[in-house]
């Protein structure tokens, strides 16, 4: 087994876009995207570490400043094997499901596996995998790191998705699935 360095990016947080200002990301019913992303990153970190991998988070808590423009630099500085950026979608409260973004054609197969790993654990609808150009932003700063996948776990403003993302047992199962996909893809 090869030891890998996985970079986990819990989306949003302190100084994400404006220095010194906390960016909660999408918020619904008092629940912040940044908090969900951090909980998932911490769970995934523990699992990957227990598998013998090195794990670096782009931010460690809500006070750790990390502009979105520096997150890919962190992955490069630590010699990241792969980077996973965790987020929650938001829309009208009616949309739901999980989707995963990737860079190029060579990254699509892993995006599909990561997306399926989350959907099977949470029971969310698969919204499929898309290139970063198909995102609402057309370009995702964290994806400047070559081996990066961005997972939109679910819709924070959809009651069903939000409940699933907050459920600790489902989160553990999904993170176990993600860790298994990453281990299989990069450590074998």
Q: Summary?
A:
By secondary structure, the protein is α/β, with parallel strands linked by helices. The chain has helices at 33-50, 71-77, 108-122, 159-166, 168-186, and strands at residues 5-10, 13-14, 22-23, 27-28, 31-32, 54-57, 82-89, 98-102, 126-131, 148-155. The chain is built from five helices and ten strands.
Give the tags.
188 residues; 6-stranded mixed sheet; two-stranded antiparallel ribbon; 5 helices; 10 strands; 36% helix; 24% strand
Molecular structure report:
It is a single chain. With 188 residues, the protein is α/β, with parallel strands linked by helices. It has one domain (5-186): Aminopeptidase (3-Layer(aba) Sandwich), CATH 3.40.630. It is built from 5 helices and 10 strands, in the order βββββαβαββαββαα. The chain has helices spanning 33-50, 71-77, 108-122, 159-166, 168-186, and strands at residues 5-10, 13-14, 22-23, 27-28, 31-32, 54-57, 82-89, 98-102, 126-131, 148-155. The strands form 3 sheets. A 6-stranded mixed beta sheet has the order 6-1-7-10-8-9, sandwiched between helices. A two-stranded antiparallel sheet has the order 2-3. A hairpin with a 7-residue loop joins β2 (13-14) and β3. The longest helix is centred in the C-terminal third of the chain and has 19 residues, at 168-186. The protein is globular and about 45 Å long. The termini are close together.
């Amino acid at each position: 087994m090869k030891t890998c360095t996985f970079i986990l990016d819990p989306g949003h947080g302190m100084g994400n876009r404006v220095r010194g200002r906390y960016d909660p990301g999408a918020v619904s019913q008092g629940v912040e995207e940044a908090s969900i992303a951090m909980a998932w990153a911490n769970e995934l970190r523990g699992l990957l570490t227990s598998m013998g991998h090195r794990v670096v988070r782009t931010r460690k808590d809500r006070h750790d400043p990390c502009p979105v423009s520096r997150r890919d630099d962190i992955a490069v500085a630590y010699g990241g094997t792969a980077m996973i950026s965790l987020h929650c979608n938001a829309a009208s409260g009616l949309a739901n499901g999980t989707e995963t973004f990737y860079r190029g054609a060579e990254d699509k197969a892993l995006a599909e596996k990561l997306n399926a790993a989350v959907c099977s654990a949470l029971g969310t609808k698969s919204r499929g995998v898309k290139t970063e150009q198909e995102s609402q932003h057309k370009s995702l700063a964290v994806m400047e790191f070559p081996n990066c996948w961005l997972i939109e776990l679910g819709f924070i403003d959809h009651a069903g998705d939000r409940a699933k993302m907050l459920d600790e047992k489902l989160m553990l199962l999904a993170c176990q699935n993600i860790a298994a996909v990453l281990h299989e893809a990069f450590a074998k």
